[in-house]
Amino acid sequence: MNAPKNRVDIAYYPGCSLATTAKENNRSLIRFCNRVEINLVELPDWNCCGSSSAHSIDSDLALDLAARNLSLVPKGMSLLVACPNCLLRLNGARLHLKNDPEALKRLEAEFGRSIDADMKILHFFELLATVDLKSLEGPGLKGLRFVPYYGCMMARPPGMMDERPEQGQMEAALKSLGAEPIRWGYASRCCGTFLSVARPDVVTPMVDDIIKGAVKAGAECIITACAMCHMNLEVRHTISKKVPILHFSEALSLAIGESDKDWFTRHLIDPRPLLRSKRLISQ
Amino acid sequence: MNVTRRDSDFGKKVIERSGTDINRCLHCRCCGGGCPFIAAMDPPPNNIIRLVQLGMKKQALESSTIWSCVGCHTCSIQCPMAIDIAAFMDVLRGLAIEEGAKIAEPDILGFHQEVLGSIRRYGRTHKLEIMLRYKLKTRDFFGDMNVGLKMLARRKLDLLPSKVKAMAEIRKAFERGKSRALQIVAEKGENP
Predict the structure, then answer these.
(1) Domain ranges of chain B
(2) What is the CATH number of the domain that holds A222?
(3) Which of A280, A49, A145 is CA-nearest to residue B125?
(4) Which of A90-99, A152-161, A193-202, B129-138 has the lowest mean pLDDT?
(5) Looking at the partner chain, which of B127, B165, B177 has a beta carbon nearest the beta carbon of A58?
(6) CATH number of the structural domain B10-98
(7) What is the band of A22 on the pLDDT scale with cuts at 50, 70, 90?
(8) Of the candidates A19, A194, A267, which has its C-beta nearest B111's C-beta?
């Protein structure tokens, strides 16, 4: 399939992490989409999806917060959600509303906007599957040896078993751009998520295990699908061997010759020496 | 452990609220076997299911297990009976607050309070403020200082919150929360 000739509009939900701590994830994603003629239309006045804390305490609040975002999606448009946790919350709310017409009616009345419970909510990987990566000009990834890290939010609760799994797509996309994926055992291991704040004693050994796994596999870098995982891996590791961690969107943009040095100075583990040695960046 | 003090309706209530039938549990212990957080859990997840089945409310609600679960779904994927264990844990946390049970992991609840407080104030999470308020609440001023400074230096923490315009819609969501847990948590989140 060829890259779309005409610009495609798609509603875009960045979420709190991409809007703040992981701006480099957001910017590289937008940059890549621009190059492949996908126009991301940020949801006007979006709110937090509820994150892990809302459903941890009150499932009603979690539903309402997620549903408000669904009510903001322009009619007939698909919604791209960049963060796996937000995706799980928003898609979970959509499925709930599809099976609970009463809640749907109540929320539509509350917000004064209609909600399409059949709308397509996409992860970036699904969108990427429609792009012919090989036709894109750029330096490619020059044999960059990476381990893919999806984290746990790509995992599906039993109620979402029928939704498409994303595992494998990162390897396929980056391999077609010249990188070399390495199999390892930690691709879907949980990073510790929010327990990183209240129980760093629990999360640190988990993160160290993941980094050690990457070192053992002989990876030059870890490539993450989730901004939250990216942060936990960078912040909580204690082992001395530093493995750079790239956002998936950064790797894609690098492959097509797009990058901004401002992205990489926001990393706690500086990826620039590796990227320079691979001649993926010049400065 | 006093097994004579049972709440025979407890299991039913949990099943209703969570929409997952824990009576399907075979106690094969796959859930605990694969759980990345098992070291922080006492007792393991299937024992919590057993406690709830037996109506031993206090023991279930006062366990550390329900707070150490982050809902990563590793267990749900492994469960041969497709029990949504994460949804089950969600319900138990809410009930623990509602019933005034002794919270085994007050810092974890404290973190959730700060996140929800931030969403209630701004509609979005403001991470720097969440961290500062959390530190104030737990009176742990120096732990993680290093991490915080590194994040500030790398411009990971915005100084000012980004705020939703239609805050009335956000407030409505918080008012509706049918569980008392939310109200208790939200009030405490406002006044640490």
Answers:
(1) 10-98, 106-190
(2) 3.40.50.11810
(3) A49
(4) A152-161
(5) B177
(6) 1.10.1060.10
(7) very high
(8) A194
Distance from CA of A64 to the nearest CA of B (A): 6
Contacts of B52 (CB under 8 A, 6+ apart): B10, B11, B14, B22, B60, B88, B92
Domain C-terminal end among A95, A124, A153: A124
Structure tokens at A117: 């419970």
Q: Hey, which residues 116-175 in chain B have their CB within 8 Å of chain A?
A: 116, 119, 123-125, 127, 131, 134, 143-144, 147, 150-151, 154-158, 162, 164-166, 169-170, 172-174
For the domain that residue A66 is a member of, what is the CATH number? 1.20.1050.140
Question: What is the per-residue pLDDT for A155?
Answer: 78
CA distance A55 to A50: 7
Domain co-membership, A20 together with A102? yes
Confidence of residue B191 (pLDDT cuts 50, 70, 90): very low
Q: What percent of chain B has pLDDT over 70?
A: 92
Closest CA relative to residue A189, chosen from A165, A161, A163, A208: A208
Stretch A249-261: mean pLDDT: 95
In a domain, A63, yes or no: yes
State which of A70, A95, A124 marks the end of a domain.
A124
Higher-scoring residue by pLDDT: A163, B164: B164
- The mean predicted confidence, pLDDT, of chain B is 90
Looking at the structure, tell me whether residues A146 and A262 fall in a common domain: yes
Residue of B nearest to A107 (CA): B173
Asked whether residue A86 falls in the same domain as residue A202, the answer is no
Q: Is residue B63 within 8 Å of residue B1, measured between CB atoms?
A: no
**Residues of chain B with C-beta less than 8 angstroms from the C-beta of A194:** 70, 111, 115
Same domain, residue pair A240 and A268: yes
Backbone angles phi, psi at A215, to 5 degrees: -65, -45
Name B175's Cβ contacts closer than 8 Å, sequence gap at least 6: none
CA distance linking residue A123 with residue A89, whole number of Å: 12
What is the tally of structural domains in chain A?
Answer: 2
Place of tokens 């992981």: A22
pLDDT per residue over A91-130, tens digit each? Answer: 999 999 999 999 999 999 999 999 999 999 999 988 898 8
Is the CB of B5 inside 8 Å of chain A's CB atoms? no
Task: List all residues of chain B from 62 to 101 with a beta carbon under 8 Å from chain A.
Answer: 68, 70-74, 76-77, 79, 82-84, 86-87, 90-91, 93-94, 97
